[in-house]
Design brief:
By secondary structure, the chain is an alpha+beta fold. The chain has helices at residues 3-22, 30-38, 57-65, 137-150, 158-171; strands at residues 26-29, 48-53, 70-71, 80-85, 88-97, 103-105, 125-127, 130-132. The strands form 2 sheets. Strands 1, 2, 3, 4, 5 and 6 form a 6-stranded mixed sheet that branches. Strands 7-8 form a two-stranded antiparallel ribbon. A hairpin with a 5-residue loop joins strand 5 (88-97) and strand 6. Helix 2 packs parallel to helix 5.
Amino acid sequence: MHGLTRRQLASIAEVVGVAGAAGIPVWLRGGWAMDFQLGAVTRPHVDVDWYCWHEDANRLATLLLARDWRLDPRMPVTTQLDLFTADVEASFAYLGRDSDGRPTVGGGPWVGTPLPAGMLDAPPGRIGALTVPTISVAAQIEFKQMYPVWMPERPRRSKDADDLALLRAVSGRSGPRTPRP
């Protein structure tokens, strides 16, 4: 395992520890969520992607900034919270809730858009001794499958196709998902 991967795993453990001690729920998303659901690091990752409730973001930022994390000056905090610790980049996409309490996109141009049902109900993932909340495998598949449809300017990358194959194998699901509005 190379150095950046070790530092990313350490940052994941730190976020889970800090957020957990403060009662702030967080969920891994993206490539690291897949790896934690598979139980192994499958490839190098550029960054660590998370979800947090929008109303918890300022408190989470304050706690991490006190531990020498720093804000990414390139990204507006209105869309998501982007932080660095050393050379590890972490982004916290905001979650909102609809009138029935179901999760929605919590910031940016898609605010209020419903997110996949059951997305936050997955069992925690594990790599070695580290156990971390993640979004569900079904939601991971939907996101990987639909990003090029929702955002045509973001074509599917080869790593996304590889991730889809791994996620489908672990879920036993291979059929297409219904496009979301």
